[in-house]
Design a protein that fits this description.
It is a single chain. Helices cover 17% and strands 49% of the residues. The radius of gyration is 28 Å and the shape is elongated. The protein has a single domain, classed as Sandwich (Immunoglobulin-like), CATH 2.60.40. By secondary structure, it is of the alpha+beta class. Mean pLDDT is 84; it is low at 3-27. The chain has helices at residues 2-22, 52-61, and strands at 36-45, 85-98, 101-110, 115-126, 129-137, 143-151, 155-167, 171-183. It is built from two helices and eight strands; from the N terminus they run αβαβββββββ. The N and C termini lie far apart (58 Å).
Length: 184
Amino acid sequence: MRMRTIAAALGGIGVVSALLGAGPAASAEIPHMPLSESISSPLLVDCSSMTVNGRGYAQLHGIALCGADTIPLDQPLRVEAVGGEECGTASLTVTSRGGGLATIAWRVASTSGPIVDVELDAAFSGRAGGTMRRFSVREPTPHAAGATVAFLGVGRATATMSGTVETFAATCRIAPASVRVHLR
C-alpha cells in the first residue's frame, strides 16, 4: 500500500514538472504599438504661385526651387512636378506620458529661405475623444516648432498634421501625414 502511494505521488510530481517544464502554451502575439512615434512629411510648393520677389530671393541665394535660381525673371518657372517641389519638411511626434496623456509636438524646417509664417493644424484623437489645435507662428525663423499636451485616454491614439508654411521664397503646403501610438 505504501508503495502505491509513493508511486502515485511521484507520478503526480512528474506530471506537474512536465507541465511546468514545457513552458507556456503558444499564445497569440500582441502587435507592437510604440509609446512614441514620429513622422516626417515634405513641404510642397506650387511653382506657378511663386512671386517675383520670391524668385529674386531664390536667385540671390542660389535656392534651386522650381528652377528659380537659373531661369530668368522674364520666363515662366517649370511647373511639371506633380504636387509641387519640396521646399522643406514638417515632422509630428506623439509621445505617451502615462495616465492617458500625450505630448503632440511638431517642427518645420525650410529649404527655401527663412520661415515667415506657419499655419499648422494638428488633429488628435483617442479613446477619450479628440480635438484639433491650430498653431500659428508669425516670426522669422529658420525652424519653427511647437507642442501641446492632451488627455486622449489609455489605448490607441492618432494625430494628423496639415497646413501651410510661408518662406521668403514661396508659400509651401504641408503634405498631410498621420502617426499612431499606444497611450498608457
